[in-house]
Amino acid sequence: MDAMTKMWVSFIGIGLMALAAVLITIARTKTRGAVRIILSIVAFVVLIFGFIYGFASIL
């Protein structure tokens, strides 16, 4: 990968991790029941993808 591609991949990873943080904050403060569980699972999946993108940017 060239430097520009690594930069964009790392930005995507950072963005996904930030999105996961926002989703989990919304899930914990604004929702209850099944919606809370679903948002938490979605946030976890987004966090995993963010981690994968972040790890790929340093290889």
Automatic annotation (TrEMBL):
Transmembrane segments: 6-27, 34-56
Domain of life: Bacteria
Keywords, alphabetical: Membrane, Transmembrane, Transmembrane helix
Pfam families per the UniProt record, alphabetical: DUF2768
Designated name of the protein: DUF2768 family protein
Lineage, top ranks: Bacteria, Bacillati, Bacillota, Bacilli, Bacillales
